[in-house]
Design brief:
The complex is a heterodimer.
Chain A lengths: L7 E6 L3 H10 L8 E6 L7 H9 L4 E6 L10 H18 L7 E5 L5 H18 L3 H6 L1 H10 L1
Chain B lengths: L1 H12 L5 E7 L5 E6 L25 H4 L4 E5 L1 H12 L8 E6 L5 E3 L3 H8 L8 H12 L2 H12 L7 H5 L24 H15 L8 H5 L7 H15 L26
Parallel strand pairs in B: 1-3, 3-4
Antiparallel strand pairs in B: 1-2, 4-5
Helix pairs in contact in B: 3-4
Classes of the chains: A alpha/beta, B alpha/beta.
Chain lengths: ~150, ~270
């Protein structure tokens, strides 16, 4: 457990959080390298199935981030996304997904330092939770075994 | 019952409609759906407490729609489904004539869907107390206990999709679960695919499900999959208020309020 390095997938919007993460880099702020960033046009595009797929592929934690309310490049994409997240979280919780592993946040293009902090705190909290064994048990690999071995 | 038969006969004879969707005597003491096209066949129609199938699932089917104008024997859940379908532009006054069967077993012939909507809004969508208790018990468990509960409950599912076929809201001609590029949901009846299928179904019915339990009644293995949709109904109510199908107005999940609560966003 001591050498457990969490794998974290970050789903971010192109206009705010991706630019914010870019600023983190150009400001030469160091932060945990456990995060794999996936760029989306808008938080409104982040399909809940993609979050489930990240867990299937072995993610231990997920970050979802975009523009602050009222700052959306497309006016209301983040508002629509927020309403879906509310229901997604409640269904995930009800079906037993560990929702402490899914971090939602708003990070603007100017908040490079905040992005670094957020990643670091997420990595720390996921490290404490350990690998996501519940989901890994049912995920891809056992499935392929079922297909190959009958 | 005689009233329903008489009315159906009249509608077919005057060619006001081409097809009447109703219930008839089935096998093993159960009723089943019947599609009456000839006035002399209207004697097959019946209505009693066994008629729990949601007939609204048929009004979006190609084979039925192609017959022309339809009349449907509609109980309260069926009427609710019809209003929801109308709000999603799947049925209209031109295509559908509603013969309402009220919870008091009265027959009401509705002139328009607006009248159906008025009637439906007299009754609130309320989760049955028994189910409320079940939801509360599940909420009391820890997430990993709930995970175990659902993995165990969903394990027997062999993805026959009877729940999808029985649901009036599952009318997409190509369902996400049928996609293979990308393959969103694994095909084998393995825990992962089963979990994702039922998760997806619940998400797609959020804010649309009218709590008719057709999915549960159709399930050959009696998997309590209606708990998921009931939970969603409760939570949509708690988070976004009013829960009634509306002919005109915003759909709960395709709209937003600037002050939707965001206590979970860091």
């Amino acid at each position: 457990m001591a050498d457990f390095e969490p794998k974290i997938v970050a789903f971010v919007c192109n206009w705010c959080t991706y630019a914010g993460a870019d600023l983190t880099g150009t400001s030469r702020i160091k932060y945990a390298s456990n995060v794999r960033i996936i760029r989306f046009p808008c938080t409104g595009r982040i399909d809940y199935m993609l979050l489930l797929k990240a867990f299937d592929e072995g993610a231990d934690g997920i970050m979802v981030s975009g523009c602050h309310p009222n700052d959306c490049h497309y006016t209301s994409g983040n508002f629509h996304a927020r309403r879906r997240w509310i229901m997604f979280r409640s269904l995930s919780d009800f079906m037993g997904i560990d929702i402490r592993r899914i971090i939602f946040s708003w990070v603007s293009a100017a908040e490079g330092a905040r992005w670094a902090e957020l990643v670091n705190s997420t990595v720390a909290s996921i490290r404490e939770l350990g690998p996501y064994d519940d989901y890994k048990k049912i995920a891809k690999k056992p499935l392929m075994e079922v297909i190959n071995n009958g | 019952m005689d009233e329903l038969r008489k009315l159906a006969k009249e509608l077919l004879e005057t060619s006001a409609v081409n097809i009447v969707i109703g219930y008839e005597e089935g096998t093993a003491g159960k009723t089943r759906a019947v599609f009456v096209e000839k006035p002399e066949d209207t004697d097959r129609l019946l209505f009693d407490s066994r008629c729990i199938q949601n007939l609204a699932a048929y009004v979006t089917k190609r084979e039925v729609k192609d017959k022309g104008r339809m009349a449907i024997a509609a109980t309260l859940p069926v009427m609710r489904s019809i209003i929801q379908l109308a709000s999603e532009f799947q049925v209209s006054d031109d295509s559908l004539h509603v013969l309402g069967l009220t919870p008091e077993s009265r027959l009401v012939e509705f002139k328009s869907l607006t009248d159906v909507e008025k009637f439906v809004h007299q009754y609130q969508i309320e989760i049955d107390a028994n189910y409320k208790g079940k939801l509360e018990n599940l909420n009391k468990l820890t997430p990993s206990e709930r995970w175990k509960f659902w993995i165990d409950e969903l394990t027997p599912c062999f993805k026959c999709y009877a729940c999808r076929a029985a649901c009036p809201m599952c009318y997409c001609s190509r369902c996400t679960v049928d996609f293979n590029q990308p393959q969103w949901i694994p095909v084998p009846s393995h825990e992962l695919g089963n979990f994702e299928w039922h998760f997806m179904r619940a998400v797609h019915l959020t804010g649309r499900c009218i709590d008719c339990d057709a999915c549960y009644n159709a399930c050959p293995l009696a998997i309590p999959l209606n708990l998921l949709t009931k939970k969603m109904i409760e939570d949509v109510k708690a988070n976004f208020g009013g829960y009634q199908p509306l002919l005109k107005g915003e759909h709960l999940m395709s709209t937003y309020k600037p002050d939707d609560k965001e206590n979970f966003i860091q």
